[in-house]
Amino acid sequence: MPTKGTERERFPELFDQTSIDPRSRTRKVEMQVLVIGMMRTGTKSTKAALEQLGYHDVYHMVSAMKNPKDYDMWAEAFNAKFYGKGKKFGRKEWDQLLGDCAACIDVPTAAFMPELIEAYPDAKVIISMRDPDKWYTSMMATVGKNALTWKMMLLGICDPFFLRKFGPCVGLMMEGMFGKDLNDAEYVKKRYLEFHEEVRQLVPEHKRLEYHLGDGWEPICKFLGKDIPKTEFPFINESKEFGERIALLDRLALGRAIRNIAPIAGVLALASTFYFGLLPRW
Known about the structure:
Layout: H1 7-10, H2 12-15, E1 33-36, H3 43-52, E2 58-59, H4 61-66, H5 69-83, H6 91-98, E3 103-104, H7 113-119, E4 124-129, H8 132-146, H9 150-157, H10 163-178, H11 185-202, E5 208-212, H12 217-224, H13 238-278
Parallel strand pairs: 1-3, 1-4, 2-3, 4-5
Helix pairs in contact: 5-10, 8-11, 8-13, 9-10, 9-13
């Protein structure tokens, strides 16, 4: 994704959105790489690196933004796993959600690594870690601060296309993964570590890569059997980009909400004019 240019060039997932029912999809490419990389662990940089190495597409939270109907299916997955509502997903459902992708990273897929490892046993597994204290501080300053706001929930009432799907799904995800109180730092960091340890227990050491942002090309290319690119490892300032994306997301949602309300407001105005016009004048 471009880091410079117009908003449309930098955030195409918010402008060129589709409305495809994910359940109509089937697997088109082999799932080759599963990355357990939580938000705020350099996932956009690693996504760009995987794409540069030839993995297309790489599913990331922004992939769901591109096709908001994905959030409906992700909500089903969260409800089944964390809340005991509905049937847990198997290979068929994962192929529907991720069928166009050769790799995945970030949430929401990071919440389902055991299920994805079972569904795609031949995929290579990368554990992308960050110091828990630094991760928590960064997560709370971005996702915790901006992704679950009252403004977003209120806008969602009048924006069924995107925010009405996005907001509740993110709420299910964050509570299911980290509990009801994100301010409980010790519990949230404990859960963060548990998600990664669960993957270590499932995947033998020789079949996984422990990767830290800043390790550069060599370990990831060696693990994946790829030549090391001559260019520098991608770097995307995710904190800055996150804030800009959320501000744009809110602005676009407000525009859709106004367009959705305008016809109703017009009818109400006409009706009130007609009604009060019939009242006797004293």
